[in-house]
Amino acid sequence: MDEQIKFMREALKQAKKAYRLGEVPIGCVIVQDHKIIARGYNRRNTDKITLAHAEISAIKKASKKTGDWRLEDCTMYVTLEPCQMCAGAIVQARIKEVVIGCMNPKAGCAGSILNLLQMQEFNHQVEITRGILEEECSEILSRFFKELRERRKKKKLTTKRLILRPWLETDAESLYKYAKDPEVGPIAGWPPHTSVENSREIIKNVLSVNETYAVCLKEDGKAIGSIGLMIGNASNLDLPDTEGEIGYWIGVPFWGEGLIPEAVTELLRHGFCDLKLEKIWCGYFEGNTKSKRVQEKCGFVYHHTNKNIHWELMDDVRTEHITCLTREEWEKSREEVKGYE
Ligand SMILES: [Zn+2]
């Protein structure tokens, strides 16, 4: 029993990793000879693949580690009752036992909807233990869904002159108007858009990710630029899940009005206060003095330079200066501002 609690706690740690990525918090570990040989957590949205469930990732890792697709002497600890896909994989991998945190009445296939783990018709049946750390396992899920509902309600950020809101496909025309300009994309690292249809595709496939916002003027709600916070490995900078990177651009007619610093200031507040990030990074390519000024204005501090990197989106070679702002520095700068008020 003690061992079961101990390993379920480890599975919960994995669930927390998913939580921090904004994924449904489900975690899993696989144990062999009283030792953890593999861990996994849900990354379905991050990796954009159905197969990225906690259990499947852990099974993959366990097989890699043991060099065998059969996991006959292994026990899986998973915070939520497995779905039909994972239950199928568990049977296929011939896992000996599954220890479950909480049940999933709407989709579980270890007893709720079906019990795929114990079908007499299959050649392998899995032992099941249910309800280990049930409360913790279900609490993290209900907290996640509660926060998700709240986030969805107030997914809009506002500043004095701007609204930052998720991109909509109906923004395609407005996006194309500004993003076709060769002065905008290339210095930020992406090619100019080629048609309204091209802009629509980019809204669907690129700009629809979590924490990417259309920068809209309050007066008419039209999208005139974009700003995003890429958290953890959503960033190219290879960041841990407690750090993020801000990227932005705005249409040429709006340059020099201080709108991007205004948007960045709000996104910094959102990142540090709402998302509890520890560090936020930014960067600009050699020669992009406008972007450099934005970052200085917003308190980012020069960190390092990546020289002569091959930039895939543009298929060219560039030098990128990376800047950073820690939570501590940000809090301090806010206090200073307050002091002047
Ligand atoms: Zn699953």
Describe this structure in words.
This protein has helices at 2-20, 44-47, 54-66, 84-92, 134-153, 172-179, 185-188, 196-205, 259-274, 289-297, 327-340; strands spanning 27-32, 35-41, 74-80, 97-102, 127-130, 157-158, 162-166, 212-217, 223-231, 243-250, 279-285, 301-311, 316-326. It is α+β, with helices and mostly antiparallel strands and 341 residues long. It is elongated, with a radius of gyration of 24 Å. It starts with a helix and ends with a helix. The mean pLDDT is 93. Bound molecules: zinc ion. Zinc ion is lined by residues 53, 55, 82-83, 85-86.
Secondary-structure blueprint:
Blueprint: H1 2-20, E1 27-32, E2 35-41, H2 44-47, H3 54-66, E3 74-80, H4 84-92, E4 97-102, E5 127-130, H5 134-153, E6 157-158, E7 162-166, H6 172-179, H7 185-188, H8 196-205, E8 212-217, E9 223-231, E10 243-250, H9 259-274, E11 279-285, H10 289-297, E12 301-311, E13 316-326, H11 327-340
Parallel strand pairs: 3-4, 4-5, 10-11
Antiparallel strand pairs: 1-2, 1-3, 6-7, 7-8, 8-9, 9-10, 11-13, 12-13
Helix pairs in contact: 1-5, 6-8
The structure holds zinc ion.
Zinc ion binds next to α4.
